[in-house]
Prior knowledge:
Elements: E1 3-7, E2 10-11, E3 14-15, H1 17-33, E4 37-43, H2 47-52, E5 59-64, H3 73-85, E6 89-95, H4 98-111, E7 115-119, E8 121-125, E9 128-135, E10 140-145, E11 151-155, E12 170-173, E13 203-207, H5 217-227, E14 231-235, H6 237-241, E15 262-266, H7 272-275, E16 283-288, E17 301-304, H8 307-321
Parallel strand pairs: 1-4, 1-6, 4-5, 5-12, 6-11, 7-11, 13-14, 13-15, 15-16, 16-17
Antiparallel strand pairs: 2-3, 8-9, 9-10
Helix pairs in contact: 3-4, 5-8
Amino acid sequence: MPNVLGYAEVRDGSAGKAAREVLGAAGELAAGLGGEVHAVAFGPSGTGVAVAGLGGATKVFAGESDALAIPQPDIAAAAIARLIEGGDYGAVVFPATAGGKDIGPRVAARIGRGLATEVISAEVEGGVVTVRRPMYAGKAIATLRFTGAPALLSIRANVFAPPEAGAGGDVVALDVDEGDARVRVTAVEQGDRDQLDVGEATIVVSGGRGMQGPEHWHLLEGLVDALGDEAALGASRAVVDAGWRPHAEQVGQTGKTVSPNLYFAVGVSGAIQHLAGMRTSKVIVAINRDADAPIFNVADYGLVGDVFEVLPALTDAVRDARGGG
């Protein structure tokens, strides 16, 4: 029976939420294909053990080298391609993170297969891997059926459930060739490490031009603090272009695509560019003084009012509800 390979992204020596969700998606596909889940990861010594500790994979291929302490997409892609060509895999799963988007297409090009990106559901029908993904800025959902194997796909964050904790799989050393690097990454500059990445948060609070300036952003920060550790700040393109917030927080077609359990659109009009990055959120709450704003067309809950009056009241209500009043 064909197995399923999941790329477990490792950052700073640890495998996080993106890796767990990849293994969860791989587990669903492996159940349909009748095979096992294997994981592949790259990093310094100890990377394989870190990934095995997540559970969900019976075997973890670990490409460990000091040269991989900083991610090297060329080296990783070449090693994954060789692993695929030497194994029996019905599907390969990548996260739709910046790292996954860097490596997934390289692997697809090396083995001559197509890649379905930003997948929101995946299953096996009659032995064929079938996935669904948004298209046309989220206005339509495409159903894709793979012909041949392996099926290559990247999954959107916060869509697939991580596997249940269990015993770690066997760690197998994977040969890596530093000569595969046509381009070598020499350094990575990190942003604010204290803030959760908007692409991984289960709750996102995004602000738009209706906030009227960066001096009012403390109101959104207050709501994020009240919502807890799983919440992160987001922003519309107009806000980022104006220099109010960093690009790392931008949600939309030219920013990050998010799919949290709860999304607050505060003072966001709902331009198509923004909707493309958040309309698959589980629950959308819109706050805007313009009752005709397009954001209300996709919102599950809408509140027409002045954000400078609504936000403080909402923040207080959330704190009281969570026992932190």
